[in-house]
Design brief:
The protein starts with 7 loop residues before the first strand and ends with a helix. The radius of gyration is 15 Å and the shape is globular. It has 125 residues and is of the alpha+beta class. The chain contains 3 helices and 5 strands, in the order βααββββα. It has helices spanning 21-24, 34-48, 118-123; strands at 8-14, 57-68, 77-88, 91-100, 105-117. The protein has a 5-stranded antiparallel β-sheet with strand order 1-3-4-5-2. It has a single domain (8-123), classed as Thiol Ester Dehydrase, Chain A.
């Protein structure tokens, strides 16, 4: 594992009807669902680690803190950024932020992941 603070990923998305609270069952409005925003944040953390782990390694999410502070309409474009801010052995902590095209913050938080050996992790299931 060659992971150091500073790793970053930027992922762009356009909100579709499949990304809404109504579609997820997390509400009944046609706005970006919090579970979808969370998934996009986690995806950005995974992308920030691309090429930085050994082939036998992966990461698993262990903790999430997310503030979803603004509604986002279908059709809107947004960017999710993940910045690796802390490494403690196998523990990795990321700051995440989602912004509208005009820079308005839509949500922010932290995602913690842990580096695991793929085979050993799956053998425990």
């Amino acid at each position: 594992m060659t992971v150091q603070p500073g790793a970053q990923a930027l992922v762009r998305h356009q909100v579709t009807p499949d990304d809404t609270a109504r579609a997820f069952g997390s509400g009944d409005l046609e706005v970006l669902a919090t579970p979808r925003l969370l998934a996009w944040c986690e995806n950005a953390t995974v992308r920030a680690l691309a090429g930085r782990l050994a082939d036998a390694e992966s990461t698993v999410g262990t903790r999430v803190e997310l503030v979803h502070q603004r509604a986002t309409a279908v059709g809107a474009e947004l960017t999710v950024r993940a910045d690796l801010v802390h490494v403690d052995g196998r523990l990795l902590r990321f700051d995440v932020v989602a912004e509208a095209a005009d820079g308005t913050v839509l949500g922010h938080g932290q995602v913690t992941r842990v580096v695991v050996d793929r085979a050993r992790f799956l053998a425990r299931l």
